[in-house]
Amino acid sequence: MLTKTNKNYSTSVFSVRIAIFLQIIFCVLIITASVQQTEAQKAINKDNLPLWQNYKGIWIGTTADEIRAKLGTPKSEDAEGFFYIFSETENAQFLLDSNKKVRTVSVVFSSDNLASPKFDDVFGKTAQAEAKPDGSIFKMVRYEDAGYWISYNRMAGEKAVVIVMIQKM
User: Which of 84, 104, 124, 137 is geometrically suited to a Cys-Cys bond with 95, CB 3.0 to 4.6 A?
Assistant: First the structure.
């Protein structure tokens, strides 16, 4: 009888070990599938980035020295950033973080600027512009993988102003 109990004990321990082993395998498979799905989602998100990711070669993270090298002397400068006037119809402001790197790019185009970006130029042809009854458009999209958001704001009226902003999250 003692041997029978040991056999039953051995069988039940063996069954428990198999059950634990199968659970571990199952968990590994779930984690692997989850990681693969996350990587696939990231690839899709990167393909879905906006067309307008920088302005005149200035990106989120560009250093203050790189801005000066690319754009020259600003119209106004302080510890928090730079302000440039490129023409009567186009100006830009670059705000810096504590490391003296760009955290915000804000560009204003007047209605007289024929090169002012259209909604599709910023977000691509697949994005939907939601015009308000007065004709104005505002849209902000967060790009989590890139670490920033972009907004497009076209004011209403005959002399519509377009403001495009990129900001680090």
Answer: 104
